[in-house]
From TrEMBL:
This is Zinc-binding dehydrogenase. PANTHER family: OS02G0805600 PROTEIN, QUINONE OXIDOREDUCTASE PIG3-RELATED. GO terms for molecular function: NADPH binding; oxidoreductase activity, acting on NAD(P)H. Keywords: NADP, Oxidoreductase. It comes from Qipengyuania gaetbuli. SMART domains: PKS_ER. Pfam families: ADH_N, ADH_zinc_N. InterPro entries: ADH-like_C, ADH-like_N, ER, GroES-like_sf, NAD(P)-bd_dom_sf, Quinone_OxRdtase_PIG3.
Length: 325
């Protein structure tokens, strides 16, 4: 699925392209399912072009079967069921992936669920645990607790011994976040999350904030961030610019950082995949953690999938059914 010009969900149209050929360290995946993510929406709107060399077709995560391998890829990957983080191309019958960015799909795991994992898992692991240095006994504040990122962050953080506070835009979504595992879910339309976080932590504040909003949320995040707390921005849905009180930041020795995963090097993502495989993937293999699934759309209905994401009514991951299996 592609589009000729940026626009609303209706711009998607089917296209026929040659099946890609895997290059060095690449594998060709016959796609079963593809995850839908907020960056896909932003790309379709014209604000998030693919990095150099990446497919212009949207789609940052897939599940499927490896049907061809390039030079340097392990021969045993052929015919293996995998899910993969990709830089683009997921909304298609065939998709190239770096061999090092694939994770095997455990026996018994549904392929739709497998496609819903890589983008959020890689993003949360890197930003909460590597950039945010989250550790057991600490408190994480994550905004958008019922989004794909939010539901993954809640589950991972709880399994690694953190308390989790989240925000959501309705009482129903707050209840969903609590069912997923959040210790406190705050309805940001009726409650002041700064006040609630500080009360929950007895005035100490959260140790890590995973921020997808930015804009005027940043200073509010810092106001409920602990001494030596870490503020990690991964999206700017609320605005590109923020005004903050640097004196407060200095007095509390707070750290601010952020990242985007898509343009990082293949080598970096392969190292990240190795760390995830060793430390987090066992939780998915044994079923301790499973992605929260919202709705599965046929690839032909990708416009409807994007419309649902933009409406903000989903809880968990939206996925496209691509293959016929």
């Amino acid at each position: 699925m592609g589009f000729d010009a940026p626009g609303g969900p209706e711009v998607f149209r089917p296209e026929t392209l040659p099946v890609p050929v895997p290059g060095p360290m690449q594998v060709l995946i016959k796609v079963d399912h593809a995850g839908v993510n907020r960056p896909d929406v932003i790309q379709r709107q014209g604000f998030y072009p693919p990095p150099p060399g990446a497919s212009p077709i949207p789609g940052l995560e897939v599940s499927g079967t490896v049907v061809a391998i390039g030079e340097g890829a392990a021969p045993e990957m052929l015919n293996r069921r995998v899910c993969a983080l990709v830089s683009g191309g997921g909304y298609a019958e065939y998709c190239l992936a770096h061999a090092g960015h694939c994770l095997h799909v455990p026996h018994g795991m549904d392929m739709a669920a497998a496609a819903a994992i890589p983008e959020t898992l890689f993003t949360v692991w890197h930003n909460v645990f590597e950039r945010g240095w989250a550790r057991d006994g600490e408190t994480l504040l994550v905004h958008g607790g019922t989004s794909g990122i939010g539901t993954m962050a809640i589950q991972l953080a709880k399994e690694f011994g953190l308390s989790v506070v989240t925000t959501a835009g309705s009482e129903d979504k707050c209840e969903a976040a609590r069912r997923i595992g959040a210790d406190l879910a705050i309805n940001y339309t009726t409650q002041d999350f700064v006040e609630k976080v500080n009360a929950f932590t007895d005035g100490r504040g959260a140790d890590v904030v995973l921020d997808m909003v930015s804009g005027d949320y940043v200073q509010r995040n810092l106001d409920c961030l602990a001494v030596d707390g870490r503020h990690v921005t991964i999206a700017v849905l609320g605005g590109l610019k923020a005004e903050i009180n640097m004196a407060k930041l200095m007095s509390k020795r707070q750290t601010m950082t952020g990242s985007t995963l898509r343009p990082r090097s293949d080598e970096f993502k392969a190292l990240l995949a190795d760390e995830i495989y060793n430390h987090a993937w066992p939780l998915f293999e044994d079923g301790t953690i499973a992605p929260v699934m919202d709705e599965i759309f046929p690839l032909a209905e990708v416009s409807a999938a994007h419309a649902r994401m933009e409406a903000g009514d989903h809880v968990g991951k939206i996925v496209l059914k691509v293959g016929n299996g």
